[in-house]
Amino acid sequence: MSSPLPPASADASPGGAAPAGPVGPLTALPGFDPRSVPVLGVDAHLPPVPASAWAPEALRRRFATPPVWTPDVLRERAMTTRAPRDAAVLVAIVQRDEPTVLLTERTAHLSNHSGQVAFPGGKVDPGDADAAAAALREAHEEVGLERSRAEVLGTLPVYATGTAFLVTPVVALVAPEGALQPNPYEVAEIFEVPLAFLLNPANHRRHALDVGGVRREWFSMPYTDPATGAVRFIWGATAGMLRNLYRFLLV
User: Fold this and answer.
1) pLDDT of 231 above 70
2) Which residues 6+ apart lie within 8 Å of 48 measured at CB?
């Protein structure tokens, strides 16, 4: 299956990823490990986003005057009957010579998406002015990112996870200077993945599986760190939001 997922209404499995080598399940679904699900297709036939489109000024212009576009995936099949909760994540584009995206590996004991790769982020609190404020607050709490280092560009469409979070991806340019410090309760590791890798659909893999009589579909974007050999299995909601960023910048 190499054609794009049905726009806007496509389903995906809950998001996240794993570090190098299996360290436990990446989902609460019994007997389901997304790393073992066969690849149905790779979107190598689609063009990558050219580097000129993710230069800082080009990104500022794109978010200031967004085009008409269609996300590939916005909603996962529900895995719970609880009421939806608003959340926000920070899609932090670190302005290195080769720009990267800041990601975290969540600690194994957390109740939601434990052990998975995720953007810094979490639930929107009553005191947060908006989704951007929530994403910046969470990024500071989780990885020690100072707000002064982030230039918020805008947001991508809300993404509904199977665990009943309505997630607003907040995209920001982040200065590379300054140290980060993971919150040991929530974050096992902080790492970065080249933006060029994430915006090249040759690295976007498609999966599908019937789980409990429900067909679940999702993207994965496994990345191997050339310096350490660590494999980051980016999948589900995290990969879905990155796929939407790809579509938004490609238009």
Assistant:
1) yes
2) 196, 199, 200, 201, 202
